[in-house]
Design goal:
Structural class: mainly beta
Radius of gyration: 21 Å
Number of helices: 1
Strand content: 25-35%
């Protein structure tokens, strides 16, 4: 018995629509394009960065934007000694939870440091902006150490 001929057809999967980021995420991303960082105030008064559309406690829509600082404090971190191709840097760096000045909820971003020993919980950092900002989270290229510890 012989093998039947295989029938094939070229096929390209595509989507004919675009997705809007909406008023909350859109404002955050527009702020990044303009080198500003916005959070949003929750029902209990906390400032959440990046902003959320709905309150985590009440599920109500949130709309009170707050500009926060470009400096912050490392709350927790993890050193990446051997970055993968998918990581933002080829040299070792840290992923960190960073609580920006004026924010209550930390955000995740990368921190560049020459060595793991330079990092510490409580270390102060500042945002380093990409040369060309376009409204993406990568507009904050990374955070860099300021060489001072927080008040805690």
């Amino acid at each position: 018995m012989t093998q039947p001929d295989l029938l094939t057809q070229a096929f390209e999967l595509g989507f004919t629509y675009t997705r809007s980021t909406g008023p909350v995420v859109g404002r955050f991303l527009t702020g990044l394009r303009d080198r500003k960082i916005f959070g949003i105030r929750s029902s209990d008064g906390r400032v959440i960065v990046p902003p959320m559309e709905y309150d985590p406690a009440t599920a109500e829509a949130l709309d009170e934007f707050v500009e926060v600082g470009q400096h912050g404090e490392i709350i927790s971190w993890c050193w990446v000694s051997r970055p993968l191709a998918s990581h933002p840097f080829k040299d070792p760096f840290a992923w960190a939870l960073i609580r920006l000045d004026g924010a209550d909820v930390p955000m995740v971003h990368c921190v560049l440091a020459a060595a793991e020993a330079e990092l510490a919980t409580g270390a102060r950092v500042q945002a380093v902006w990409a040369e060309d900002t376009r409204g993406f989270i990568t507009d904050i290229r990374c955070f860099e150490l300021l060489g001072e510890l927080g008040d805690e």
